[in-house]
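Hey,

The postdoc asked me to send both predictions to you directly instead of through the lab channel. I've kept everything plain text so nothing gets mangled by the mail client. Protein one:
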Amino acid sequence: MKSHQTWPCISSSSRFTSLPLPNLTASELSAAYSSRSVRLCSRPPPSKPPPSTAEETDFSSLPYDVLTRIAASFDQPNLQAASLVCRSWCEALRPLREAMVMLMWGKRFKHGKRGVCRNTEKALDMFTKAAARGSALAMVDAGLIYWERGEKIKALDFYLMAAHLGNPSAQCNLGISYLQVEPPNTEQALKWLYKASKGGNVRAQYQLALCLHRDGGSRSNIREAVKWYMKAAEGGYVRAMYNTSLCYSLGEGLTRNHRIARKWMKRAADRGHSKAQFEHGLALYSDGDMIKALVYLELASRAGEKGASHVKNVIVHRLSAVSQNHAMHLANSWRALPSN
């Protein structure tokens, strides 16, 4: 049955999956990053007289750029909690609270939620206004809309601002953008992907692992790649679960262990990864567990894995009509497990 094993296909001939990334020319990226100055807030907070003594200096008297760096990526609960510390903190964080309201409305307009009609223009207006008040979360959302429109320079402006504020999602987007330069700027890509990965962004961890895995045959790189595959897999990133299984199965960067490989393959399959469903179905077929094998192969076939249909038909001819109907019922009622 080994001949039926399938691996993701990418241009580099690696068997490991990659993220679908938009094309970005070197001129576009260099124009975006040359001579850029990061402004955190176009509307400064209310001016206050400087404290007369050192004892009066507190959180609220910090420069607004510093406050933004501290709180730009706060979510609603953290921002509210910080605002309740004292009156001076509440006043200092007022622009970010205003930004949070605008961010909320922007998401409603973007997705058409809570009785609001979908309107991308209004969503972008809310996101840009929230970004002007210092919200890194809004900067990322504004960047996403510009990117979807093909306005890459504007998108990168917002990603860059949010990345410098420490937002892992923006850092991840920047890293992936650098991979699209012709030729790719791997050094800058790795720099931002490392930052995002250390910040816990599982998509960046997975992409970083792919970059390291493809970078020649260095053992140290492969071990580092596997470390990030596993972090992303443990964080719920399904593609990383599949690649972690491959590493255990092939002994790449890890001691070969088929039991652990099958564990990760099943995790990916149960979360909807079609190639993992195919591979796991083949393993179950080899074990003689025909009904479960048929379920996973049916799911893989429905997801477009052509090779799964052939093996599925072989199993169907070996099962009774009752067993076939039971397997189809299980496949019809199947729901993917949540990633986390």
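Protein two:
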Amino acid sequence: RMMARPYHVVVVLLLLESSVRFGEGASNPGVVARITTKGLEYANQYAVATLRKELPAIRLPDFSGNFKIGWFGRVSYNFHSLKIHRFEVRNSDLSLLPGLGIRASLSNNDLSLGGNWKVKKGFM
């Protein structure tokens, strides 16, 4: 038995979704799709594996700013060359929202990143 490649599954789901939308408002759309719990679990596992693979290759944008700390005064910060080193998924979930679509959620996960940063406090 041959197993479908993950991107084939995604393409088929997108085609089914677009063909179902094409038939909205018609009395007979011609296509009926059923997404099972097992299918959602498979999509969730594939999404988590993709996140683990792709996130380390992403470079986060640089950012800077300043804020005031009570009597201490203004503090400036600058973060640059940030890169994700590790991403651990503890809780992820895909669920159906009837009439709306699919909800994806991630919670209680662990992310490790590194980069360069600078914090300045002017005394005058």
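Summary for protein two, as requested: Residues 81 and 115 are 5 Å apart (CA to CA).

Thanks,
C.
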